[in-house]
Every structure is written in structure tokens, then in C-alpha cells.
Amino acid sequence: MEGFNYKGYDGLGLAELVKKKEIQPIELVEEAIALTDSLNPKMNAVINKMYEQARKAAIRELTGVFAGVPMLLKDISQEIEGEPITAGSKAFLTYRAKVDSEYTRRLRQTGVVFLGQTNVPEFALVAVTEPAHYGPTRNPWNLDHTPGGSSGGSAAAVASGIVPIAGANDGGGSIRIPAAYCGLFGLKPTRGRTPVGPNYGRAWQGASAEHVLTRTVRDSAAMLDVLHGHERAGAFSAPPFEGSYLTAAATPLGKKLRIAFSVKSPIGTEVDADCREGVLKTVRLLESMGHHVEEVEAPVDGDKIAKSYLTMYFGETAALLASLEEVLGRKATAADVEPTTWLLGLLGKATSAEEFVLSLREWDRAALQMETFHETYDFYITPTTAHHPAKIGELEPSSSEKFLISTVGKLGIGGVLKKAGIVDQIAQKNLARTPFTQLANLTGQPAMSLPLHQTKNGLPVGVQVMAARGKEDWLFQLAGELEESELWQDVRKNPLF
């Protein structure tokens, strides 16, 4: 163990050492615990430490592709029977998971050792991780900045080297945004590719998908090999894939591609020069590799996509607040959740079933438009985010906004806000920093964020690549090639690594 560089290995690398008996799983767990105790006070990435459970698991006989490798789970939907899972909310503080989630059950087949759970914004609703109950998670590249959300705790833990892999999910960019902000690889799979049960057959009407955040492409691919597959109660099924994603990640594409790209915000808002430059550098590299690249915007209405996403977002929040009665033993009140969450729920209550159904039809329309688009273009490239990571607290509501939220919450007048056009204002403000990621959630396409650029201040910048539904193998092939390029940013250069 002396001189062993735990942080220098990815998950598969650590598993190989275990397989060769060059190191024991308990040694890896103790190293991860020591790093958590050292780094977590600075970042606040891990909010539930399962040290003793991890130590007990590490001395059992472990099998699987990641046997003995420490891993963290996200504190929402990734349940372990008997363990707390709070979704970042004080409303769930006494709740204990009744069964393993299907996601967790499949992860056990890989042989990973669960070390704990990572911080999330309340109910994973926003793209920064600053829940009122647990406090903000900080970006290991610069502790004054956010790691993004909603998988911000997972991203910070992986980017700082505590673990090589952490659980994540993505309903509007929650894998890709933290990947972009923390210099990681993050892939959102095709709708229906990974499990969301057994408590649900769909998550956010199919917009949300479960996967992981990793430092290397191959770790993500190997995880998807285990996670993907039919789920008995799942509402959606992805196009079948009989091969190996891990093999795909190590296999060059072997053909010249037609690639579209855009650096324009689909909702007409500003895009930072650094975020544009990340895409343009990637495009120049792909052209030098012989691929045909064109600047072409996706054939969808960005404003309609944003509004239909928010309609689902409001409705799902309202339904979640209604379901809190099962946990609390009474109807939820504004005091049980954060003010913004309560406001979102009121907007959901003011949304009609007609509006909700029409918004889902917009998803289907966009899905067909993008499938047709991908008959011409193999990939669609955009910035992952329109801006670099915000500073901690920067996106907190202003005093006037807090007063408005409080007043609306007390009076229950969500419908008035909708009629006054406040919803449109919320859409602009909330999506202006991250307008690129929601499209793939609504269409069900796979999309990934690649760490291919940095700002002049040394903050990571992500480049998003989308493909047609079912084409995760193509994304892994492209990512595997770009990982070998000079553009790929080394997460080990961040200050806390």
C-alpha cells in the first residue's frame, strides 16, 4: 500500500489491481474514507457516510467488473434498503428506503462498495447544489463556484478524487451540467436504457435517466454494460443493443461522419465566449480527422422546448408535494419545503391536464424532428452550458423575488403568476445558463458532455454531443477517440485532486 496512488487509477484500473491481488478492497475503502474525511469538509459533497457498511462489504467475497471499488450514490432515487434517502429535503429526514432501487441492485452486480450518498438540491430541481438543509456543495476546481446540479455532490466527489465513479441521474442536464463544470465525462443514456424502478415506471415522464459520473470514458461504458436492459415495470424500452459499450469505447469509429454543430442558445440568450470556443476547438479537431462538419441548428423550436420542459417540471413538483402526505402522515405545507419548491408546486397546480398533454405532444414532435435530422447528421454538437459555473449563492433569488415567492406561497396564487407572464420570465432566468441540455431529455436521445476546454481562470468547460436514440455506442466510440486528443482536460490537475 505504501506509495500507492489511489487517485491515479480509474474504477477499472482499481478493479484490476484487486483482481491481481495487488491490493485488497478494504484498503481501497480506507483510502476513500480518509479522502472523504480530508476533502469533504471543504466541498460538502457527501452528506450520508456509510463507512461501517462499506467496511463490512469490503471484506466479503466480491465479484464483478468493479469488484472492490468504492462508489457513492446520489441522494435521490438510488435507494439502499434501510438507508435514508432525503432527496436533499428536510421533509424526508425520517424516511428510510423500503427496498433497493433496481439501479442499486444492478450496481451490486458490478462488485462496487457503497461508501455513502452525495448532496443534491432539494428534489433535484435545479442546476446548482445548494439545498437549504445540507448547505452548498463546492466545486473542487474553485471552491467559490458551484459544481452544478443536480448531481453536484457526485461530480465534486469524483472530480476531487474521493471515488472514481458516483451515481447520477439526468432529467434536464443533471449528469451533463456537473460533468461540464467539474471536468468529467457524463453520458445521459437513451430513454428506457437504464432502470428507474421499482417504485416508478417512469421518471419525469421519461425525461430522466439514471447513470454515473466518471473521470474516464471506459468506466462509464463498463457501467452501462451492467445497468442497461429490460425493466419489468418500466414504461419505456430503448432500442436493443447486443454488443459491449466497453468494447465500443475502445473501438475507433472507422468511418467519416457528418456532424452538425451550433453555438447559439436555442432560447436566444447569451453564450459565453469560452463555451463557444470549446465547441469550435472540437469542430476544428474533428475536421482535421476528416469528418464533414456543418454549422446547423437543431430543427426544433427552442422556446417551445423550454416551455414544455417547464410544464412537466411544474407538474412533477406539484405531484411530488402531494405525495409527501405518505411520508409526513399529513398534507405538506409551505414550511416543509424550500420556498422555491413550494412556488413550483403552485405553478404545477395551476397547470391544466390539457396543457400537460399538449406539452408531451411537443416532446414527440421534437423527437421526430431530431430523428429525421440524424438521418443526415450522425452527431449534433453544442456547448454543454452557456456559461461557466456560477459562484456559490449567485443564483439565490433577490430580495424582491424572495418577497414575491413568499407572498405567492402564502396566498396560493400560482395561476395569477402564469397569467401575468411570470412563468416565461422564470423560463428565461432558469434556463439561460443551461439552455442546451433539455432537448435530449424530452426527445429521449443519448447525449454526453466531454471535458474539452477550460476558461482562462482554469474552470472546466464541457462540449455536448447528441446522437440518435439507441446510439450510445457511437457516442462512446467518439468519446474514446477524443479522450486521446490534446483537447481532453486532465481532471487530476484540479487543486483538490
UniProtKB/TrEMBL annotation:
Residues 27-473 form the Amidase domain. Belongs to the amidase family. InterPro entries: Amidase, Amidase_CS, Amidase_dom, AS_sf. Pfam families: Amidase (PF01425). The lineage of its organism: Bacteria, Bacillati, Bacillota, Bacilli, Bacillales. PANTHER family: GLUTAMYL-TRNA(GLN) AMIDOTRANSFERASE SUBUNIT A, MITOCHONDRIAL, TRANSAMIDASE. This is Amidase family protein. PROSITE patterns: AMIDASES (PS00571). Signal peptide: none annotated. Coiled coil: none annotated.
